[in-house]
Amino acid sequence: NKIKERIKNRFNASVAEVDYLDNHEHSILGFSFVGNDKSLINSIIDKMINNINELFLGEIINTHVEIINV
Question: pTM here?
């Protein structure tokens, strides 16, 4: 998957296809970032989403962000 590889390489993210595994037209991807600066993580997520949109790698229909503090 082009999107998964580009995001892994450019943003050093863990990426997994989490639904529609047998569907070549749709995909749901999950991304994971680890860090100790919430604002930096939010900035990286914003840049990642913008990058996908700018490169026309796919259409983002919906996003959900959850940040867990431990």
Answer: 0.76
